[in-house]
Design goal:
The chain is α+β, with helices and mostly antiparallel strands. Helices cover 21% and strands 27% of the residues. The protein is built from 4 helices and 10 strands, in the order H-E-E-E-E-E-E-E-E-E-E-H-H-H. Keywords: Apoplast, Disulfide bond, Glycoprotein, Manganese, Metal-binding, Secreted, Signal. Residues 1-20 form the signal peptide. It comes from Hibiscus sabdariffa.
Length: 209
């Protein structure tokens, strides 16, 4: 009898533990740590946590880059918290582009839904991998490597990206250099650009000369 009681208790604990490990819907009211958000209590989780509807509407491309990124990371889509996957919608007006950037925490896979893009990345040995992407094409951008996309077609472009992290991070080179108050003289010394070019870029991207 005691053996059966122990067996039943162990099975119940195992079952509860397995269910608890199925997912960890992010509790967005709690701080986000290095491992993501803490888990919502089970009774607070609903199917809505696993649905994201933000891709229904095109992003606003009326900006200097003529581009818009709509993220579905753990902050916007709590159901992916802890699942090592997330998504984003990329809208590019004619002539639009994403500035040179990296995702420190994730590899990106991009699928082209509409339009034609010039896209590429630069390896750690400074080799350039550059191509044209058309509707239905898919391209991978390895984690941490500098990459970009440019709409070279005559119509707006649409693409969707998936990432191997719920919080891939993004680091824009141009904004890191010119959208701040780093002295022009320092930028001259470290980029070999002249002061007029630096001032123009700072003005364009919202930096302070």
């Amino acid at each position: 009898m005691m053996f059966l009681l122990i067996l039943f208790t162990s099975a119940s604990l195992f079952s509860s533990s397995s269910n608890a490990l199925d997912f960890c819907v992010g509790d967005l009211s709690a701080p986000q740590g290095p491992a993501g958000y803490s888990c919502k209590e089970g009774e607070a989780v609903t199917v809505k946590d696993f649905v994201f509807s933000g891709f229904r509407v095109a992003g606003n491309t009326s900006n200097v880059m003529k581009a818009a990124v709509t993220p579905a990371f753990s902050t916007q889509f709590p159901g992916v918290n802890g699942l090592d996957v997330s998504l984003a919608r990329l809208d590019l007006a004619v002539g639009g582009r994403t500035a040179m950037h990296t995702h420190p925490e994730a590899t990106e896979v991009l699928i082209i839904i509409q339009g034609t893009l010039c896209a590429g990345f630069i390896s750690s040995t400074n080799k350039v991998y550059l191509t044209s992407l058309h509707e239905g094409d898919v391209m991978a951008f390895p984690q941490g490597l500098t990459h970009f996309q440019i709409n070279v077609g005559k119509t707006p472009a649409l693409a969707f990206a998936s990432f191997s992290s719920t919080s891939p991070g993004i680091y824009f080179m141009d904004y890191a250099w010119f959208a701040n108050d780093l002295p022009t003289q320092i930028l001259q010394e470290t980029t070999f650009l002249d002061s007029d070019q630096i001032k123009k870029l700072k003005e364009l991207l919202g930096g302070i000369n």
